[in-house]
Every structure is written in structure tokens, then in C-alpha cells.
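Case study: Extracellular solute-binding protein.
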Amino acid sequence: MRSTKWLSIVALCTFVTACGDSASSGPDSASKDTSTPKPTEATTPAADIKKITDTPTDLYIAYPGAGENVDLFMTRFGEQIKKKFPNYNLKYVPRLAAEGTNYYASALGSGTPIDIMISSLGTTTTYLTNLKLESDISDLIKKYNYDLTRLEPSLIDAQRALANGGIYGLPWTVGSFIFVYNKDLFDKFGVPYPKEGRTWDETYDLAKRLTRSDGGQLYQGFSIQIESAMGTNQLSAPYFDPKTHKSKFLEDSFLRAFENMARFYKIPGNETPASGVVNGFQKDKTIAMFMGTSGQVKPTAELIPNWDAASVPEFPDKKGVGFQSAPEYFYITKAAKSRDAAFQVLSFIASEEYQEWMGRTTAILPVMKDPSKIMQTYGAELPNFKGKNVAALLPKTYAPLAVTPYLTIGNAEMATVLKDYLGGRDLVSSLREAAERADKRVAAEQNK
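Here is what the predicted structure looks like once written out:
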């Protein structure tokens, strides 16, 4: 009831300009923060931080991934933020379905001061920079002496790349590609469980051994969410050139990464399942091994009690290197009226306190450079996590991030390329055509 009330208040404000005084909510006020006095030292004392958090403050937060679902925002973030900062009045700014791709037009048009935008790295262009909301928070990091070295370095490197050396936000989840398997199918066919540090070729052999028909039922060895996997591949082969934004689908490393994973679907009987790779693994329970986004850990545990995890397959020349991270961030926007108050929220979300709670209750992977302590309680309040090899969900080393603002365009093209490739088309020709389509879509985005 409480969260629904917040949603209605902000939704009303997005359509009624009288909700805010134009003199105090216009763009010139974005850099002003009336919630706290300026510090006299480079590092703000704890007493000043307390003064900020003790001051009643309205914070407007947008979470495009939740759309109009304020309950998802509250469950994942809002309730914990309110516990930590009871004097903050959180106001959720919904992404309205009626606005289509004209994201947050009503809110921004009426002067609603979005203080925090929550977005994945791949959609940062859509929800931050395209809306001209990006804002460097390096001054706040210095002001509050926030220790960036506690965080997984690749997550900060990604921000440096996006912000030309600055930082727009702090991460709330690392995201990653994970490898899980159904122990029941291994036991059924007498096949040893996947070992740590195995290569892609060894995983290919396992997939062939497990793909078979038994009692009239087809069982498949291995399925991959290959479209997303290419966007975070272990070879750091990028979709696009970081400067020109021209596609690089025909580079040798890109071809190697694609063919390495696509070959699994050419094993006789191991084709893409009709129900989809996720449903085939979790619901049909006819796929022995699955590799996909880290958001699939929790539903896997719920639907396959006898599951476990292992490290992702490795290239022989890239031992210990996992996929690239797929982080999501809390951004303080250019429209923020309460930057100092908002930064306390960012600091909390990226803290061990919140990260431990998140892993324990939601099975979302942490952003810390050393996650070992947090992983000790990972999934502890969820069913079917006890005794699982959850440490394997995180790689020893993340592959270097190939940052691109057009990740979703690349992922979409990979789905088409995979379909063509499995249908017998020449891979190079299919990738060349995909590159031409992608370049046109990127150009269209840039000309908006």
C-alpha cells in the first residue's frame, strides 16, 4: 500500500507542472544542493554525513527495468534504503508504458527532478546519456572519501570509459555469465559432474555424451544463451569499435568466440530446444548443462533442487578468465536536486552491508573486489542453496570489458546470425549482413 501511494504521487507530478516551482526545479538548479552545507575539508567528517542523512529529503528514483512496478523497486532496493535512511522520502518515477520509447518524457518535461537512475551498462545510453542526464560524481567520491578499490575493478573501468575518465555512478550488481547443471541427468546416465577449470573442448565432449534419446525422450547436453554471451564473451571481442562505433563482427577473435559456442548446437540432437534454452533446462529438465545470465541462478535453484554450479568453460590460452561482467549501476543524474543525499544511497548500495543482504536473500551477485565473505551466505535464505558450489558462479578473473553503448543492437543481431548459421548459411556471409544492418541501426540511433 505504501509503495503504491508513492507511485501515484510521482505519476501525478509528471503530468501536473504545478508540482514544482520552475525557479527551483529547472536545469540551473541541478548542481545546487540545498540539503547540506559545503564541507570545509576535502573529506567530509562523519558528523556532516550524519547531518545529511538526518535531514528529511525527497529522493526521486527511476528504475526502468521495473517499469511501472513499484513493488519490484521496493523489494529490491526501496525497503532497505528506507531502513538505512529513515529520513529520506523515496519517490518512485515510473517508466510509463504509454510513452513507448519516449522514455520519461512526462517526468522530464514537467521538471520532476530524477535524482537517481538505475540502469544496466548496456542500457546506460538509452536511459542516461540519450536523455542528457549524465553527471560526473568524481567530486562526491572525493568529498566523502569513498574507497573505489573495494569494488571489482572492471566495473570502475567501464565507468571511466563511459565518462571519459570520470564516473557517472556506482554498481549495485556485477552480473556475469554462469554455468549450472542438473545433477539428476548426470546421475541418470552415469556421467561424471563437470570439473573446475575444464576447457571448452572438454565441455563439448560432455555435451556429446549427455545428448541422447532415452525412453522416447530426447535429452540434450548443453544449451547457451548465446546472444547475450557474445556481448560479454571471454575474448573481449567487441561488437563495435569504441571510437567509430562501426561493427567488428568479422574480426578473427569475434569469429572464434562465436564459432566456439555455436558448435554445441550442431551436435546431433542438441539443437536449440523448441521451448527455448531456459525452459528446456529449468522447466522441461531435459538439458543437462546450461550457461546464461546470472539472473537464472535463483529460478534454477527453485525448479531444480538437485542442481549445482561449476566454473564456465575456459580457453586453453585464457586459463581462469571468465566472461566479461554485465554490471548495473545507480547513477546520480544531472537533474538531481539532492546530490549529497543521493550519494549516501549509492555508497550504501555498493557497500558490503547491502551486498551481503542482496546475495543472501535474492541470489544476485556482488560487486566487491573480494566477494569471498559475502558468498559464504549467498542464497542462505533461499531454498536449495545449501551445500552448492556457489563460489564457482564468480570467475577468478573477469575478461576485460569491451564497452559499447549499443549492446542491445549487437545482441539482437547475434540471434539472427545464430538462426542463419544453424540453418546452414555461411557464417562469414551471415555476419557481414548482420554488420551492415547493425551499422545502419547505430547510425539511426546517433541521428536521433
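For the exam, be able to explain this: The first strand starts at residue 57 and ends at 62.
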